[in-house]
Design a protein that fits this description.
alpha+beta, 4-stranded mixed sheet, 15% strand
Length: 412
């Protein structure tokens, strides 16, 4: 009787349970969810992969939990010790390294290469910050692998499998010849991993890149000029039709009544997205900002004491910004999450057309969950607050304490 089914697709995380099933010789079915979409959706409504389900209906999501479970299904205790650790210290280190790779390394790799590939919108600051984070995390792996064949023991463990999979997209798109020269230990280890018996089937004909992927701004499409149609003389032939009521005009956004501004908001948004924030974008902003046309606001979530996990707080900002879509042509801003899990807050700075906050913000149903304090651009403290909120490179000061920024969103 089969031990269960793993739903796995082409994405790299799916390689982890796939190699374990083959390496350990487990009687576990490997199923591409696209071949049984109805059953897959029934078993796992979120449709995330990989997933595991046993014949009796025991379900698991999240790749590290699935990997741990699959290894323990094996009757080969020596293989279990190699992959999961033979003692408490080894097991703890294996959890540490796979967690670092999955939770820190991989998200930063994705944040860099996906916009460069065109899979997600490109924001220079976000990509640059993630690239800097990636350098920091890579240096941790490099230091470790200078003195160790593998991450924990002298054998391939689950930590090595997870980390190699997480590094893969980096080697696909970001880690060119120069990077590999600067990180010889990681490069040696990665080559060893993809040539190993346990992983080589997933890396057939793997090619290393010479140059990292670079950002290419999209080309502006030229509007084709439509040939002018000759006006036909229809007046004589026009049949009289009964007068119809004119369609009701869609009400204009209240801020549209303020007219066109001399401060070109789209130009500022492009500057912020494509230039270094502190040395280039912010000086440009203060040089061109017109306080008679726009106003600056400190926007803070009223219920910070109810926030729990930082990623959930960041999702809260994302939802708020999504609901502000009707006003984005009249405003710009950034909001950040500071602190840590179960002790964090949301704050930011926004610029809106006009001198009042409600006309810009009240398009969002939850706008009253935030407080709005008008800022004075001539006040150095207020000005520095705006700089910090838009640069994300300094801690947020809360009750005299520095709280590190952990995430954030930009409204553009």
């Amino acid at each position: 009787m089969s031990l269960g089914t793993v739903y796995a697709n082409f994405r790299m995380r799916s390689a982890i349970p796939r190699v374990l099933v083959k390496h350990l010789g487990l009687d576990v079915k490997l199923v591409d969810p696209t071949t049984c979409e109805a059953q897959f959706a029934k078993d796992f409504p979120l449709k995330k992969v990989p997933d595991f389900i046993s014949p009796k209906g025991y379900k698991l999501t999240e790749v590290m939990a699935i990997a741990f479970y699959l290894i323990n299904l094996s009757e080969d205790t020596k293989a279990q010790d190699r992959l999961l650790g033979a003692n408490l210290q080894e097991r703890a280190q294996i959890i540490r390294w796979q967690s670092l790779a999955n939770n820190e390394l991989l998200p930063n790799i994705a944040t860099v290469f996906q916009p460069l590939k065109g899979d997600k919108p490109y924001f220079k600051k976000i990509v640059d910050d993630a690239s800097s984070n990636l350098d920091n995390f890579a240096s941790i792996f490099e230091e470790r692998l200078k003195d160790y064949t593998y991450l924990v023991t002298e054998n391939i463990s689950l930590a090595d499998i997870v980390a190699a999979v997480c590094f893969t997209r980096g080697f696909n798109y970001l880690f060119g010849t120069q990077w590999r020269k600067e990180h010889p230990a990681i490069t040696r280890w990665f080559k060893t991993m993809i040539d190993s018996e346990i992983m080589k089937d997933e890396y057939i004909d793997f090619q290393f890149i010479d140059e990292p992927l670079k950002y290419t701004p999209p080309k502006k499409e030229k509007k084709e000029q439509q040939p002018k149609k000759k006006e036909a003389k229809k007046e004589a032939k026009k049949e009289e039709k009964p007068a119809e009521a004119a369609p009701e005009k869609k009400p204009k956004h209240p801020l549209e009544l303020l007219g066109k501004s001399t401060f070109v908001l789209d130009e500022w948004k492009r500057k912020y997205s494509n230039e270094d924030t502190r040395p280039v974008a912010l000086p440009w902003f203060w040089e061109h900002y017109n306080p008679e046309e726009y106003s600056l606001w400190k926007v803070e979530y009223k219920y910070n004491d109810e926030l729990t996990l930082t990623f959930m707080s960041n999702n809260l900002i994302g939802g708020f910004f999504n609901r502000l879509t009707g006003s984005t042509k009249y405003m710009f801003g950034a909001m950040v999450v500071y602190g840590e899990n179960n002790d964090n807050g949301i704050v930011g700075a926004c610029m809106v057309r006009g001198q009042e906050a409600p006309p810009a913000f009240d398009v969002a149903p939850d706008w009253e969950s935030y407080s709005y304090v008008k800022l004075d651009h001539t006040n150095e403290e207020d000005k520095e607050f705006v700089n910090n909120m838009w640069a994300w490179d300094k801690p947020v000061v809360v009750n005299g304490q520095n709280k590190e920024i952990v995430d954030g969103k930009v409204l553009k």
